[in-house]
Write a structure and sequence with these properties.
The chain folds into two domains: 28-105 and 149-319 and 359-467, Outer membrane efflux proteins (OEP), CATH 1.20.1600; 107-147 and 320-353, Single Sheet (Outer membrane efflux proteins (OEP)), CATH 2.20.200. The strands form two sheets. Strands 2-3-5-6 form a four-stranded antiparallel beta sheet, with no helix packed on it. A two-stranded parallel sheet has the order 1-4. 57% of the residues lie in helices and 11% in strands. It is an alpha+beta fold.
């Protein structure tokens, strides 16, 4: 009988057909570019501020606000707030994932020992007798190792490390956010006290007007209608005082919650001192240096790096893979022969695998990795543009609020002097009710607006500290390395 064999000249053609059918990554690559900080112009927006090389906030920037009670509250919140415990747990999860990815790169060596007791049925018994018993004793050592020929496992580990670093920076960002929130809530509490003072002062003024109105009515100078208007004004002032007290209690509760405590903790907080706004200054080389000063930017950059490594890992799955498994041990039915020569065994199994046709699974996985990279780059670019915008906006608002406070303080001083004059005249029976009412409302509005402007100035000052990174100094990454095609 004649045996037909494939001619040797057809082997290259067969090999080419197989390779053509293999899964490949042709045509897949990410399409995203990191924004260069120097390309974002900031000179005109930051012009109102003084440029200083020492303008970066310190790690304890809240000390500069001038209230030791606030310092203690922030330190306590950083220890007890549950939200920080959540971010810390997530950072530990990411670190554990990186450790697991690193472990996957190592060889596995295991040992097993077992004793198996069996009873044979007649069918299982080679002698067809049945009712026989057997004891199999086994001891073996196994070995398994995957050769990282193309660096895919290393890239996967580096991606996990990048995610772990991003999670750790997220934890620092959460600490900054919490400190900022506590400082802003503390400022709100101080404003609530001032608003309550203004409401009480306004109530006293309206009560004084009511007393004068009754005297003028008794003297026949004013009418009952004018007295009723004053009584209505006094009732409105009482309502405003009650509302101010309600806002004060709410501010205490909000601050207690941020500290991770029960609402009663807010009752133990003394009246805040008048906080000092930060000086309006910007660091030199702001766009470039901000990359290592803002924790959200550092975390976003680490996620870009991790996504880049994931692309490398995805690409290596298209290539051949080499695994080596081995086992050695002993098996024996007789206990005293377990370690005898005839009971020993071993096996070695090197294996090569190459994906040929997978229905597009590997290409879909690589496309997903490319999309993850593009998303990480887009989020980083968005964070960078937003960060510079926050700094510029805070500086411009600080400068404008400073001028507004000066103008409004002058308005308060003038209104207060005018009110003193018209009430003296009104009490002497010379002035009229309309003048007193008009000036009193002007004074109340000016005092409320001044308190609001001062509170906004402190609030924006705190936001500026956050926009500049709040004293964070993280490691910066080198320029982005886009994945190779």
């Amino acid at each position: 009988m004649k045996t037909h064999r494939t001619p040797l000249k057809l082997l290259p053609l067969a090999l080419a057909v197989i390779l053509a059918a293999c899964a490949n990554d042709h045509g897949l690559k990410p399409d995203a570019t990191l924004v260069e900080p120097g390309s974002l112009n900031t000179a005109a927006s930051l012009a109102p501020a003084t440029v200083s090389p020492a303008a970066w906030p310190s790690a304890t920037w809240w000390n500069g606000l001038g209230d030791p009670q606030l310092d203690a509250l922030i330190e306590q919140a950083l220890q007890d707030n549950p939200s920080l415990q959540v971010t810390a747990a997530r950072a530990r999860q990411a670190t554990a994932s990186a450790d697991a990815a690193d472990a996957d790169r190592s060889a596995y060596i295991g040992a097993d020992a077992a004793v198996q007791r069996s009873r044979f049925s007649r069918v299982q018994d080679p002698l067809l007798q049945g009712d026989r018993y057997s004891t199999l004793r086994t001891a073996e050592v196994t070995f398994d190792y995957s050769f990282d020929l193309w660096g895919g496992e290393r890239a996967a580990w580096e991606a996990a490390v990048g995610q772990a670093r991003a999670a750790e920076v997220d934890r620092q960002a959460a600490r900054l956010t919490l400190a900022v929130d506590v400082a802003r809530a503390y400022s709100d509490l101080g404003h609530a006290f001032i608003a309550a003072d203004i409401a009480q002062e306004d109530l006293k003024r309206t009560q004084q007007m009511l007393t004068l109105g009754r005297q003028r009515l008794a003297a026949g100078i004013d009418s009952q209608y004018q007295l009723q208007q004053t009584e209505s004004l006094e009732a409105s002032a009482q309502e405003q005082a009650v509302n101010a007290d309600k806002e004060l209690r709410s501010a205490r509760i909000a601050l207690a919650v941020l500290m991770g405590k029960g609402p009663d903790r807010g009752h133990d907080i003394a009246r805040p001192q008048i906080l000092k706004p930060a000086a309006v200054a910007v660091p030199s080389l702001l766009p470039a240096d901000l990359l290592g000063r803002r924790p959200d930017l550092v975390a976003a950059r680490w996620r870009v790096e991790a996504a880049s490594r994931n692309i490398e890992a995805s690409k290596t799955r298209f290539y051949p893979n080499l695994n080596l498994t081995a086992a050695a041990g002993t098996q024996s039915i007789l206990g005293d022969a377990l370690f005898g020569r005839t009971s020993r065994f071993f096996n070695i199994a090197p294996a090569v695998s190459l994906p040929i046709f997978d229905g597009g699974r590997l290409r879909a996985g690589l496309a997903a990795s490319d999309a993850d990279y593009e998303l990480a780059v887009a989020q980083y670019n968005k964070s960078l543009v937003g960060a510079l915008g926050e700094v510029a906006d805070a500086i411009n608002r600080m400068e404008a609020l400073g001028r507004q406070v000066e103008a409004k303080q002058h308005a308060v001083d003038v209104s207060h002097a005018s009110y003193t004059t018209v009430t003296d005249r009104y009490g002497s029976g010379i002035g009229n009710y309309l003048d007193v009412l008009t000036i009193e409302q002007q004074l109340l509005g000016a005092q409320q607006q001044l308190a609001s402007l001062n509170a906004q100035r402190i609030d924006v000052s705190i936001q500026l500290m956050q926009a500049l990174g709040g004293g964070y100094q993280g490691e910066t990454l080198a320029s982005a390395q886009a994945p190779h095609e």
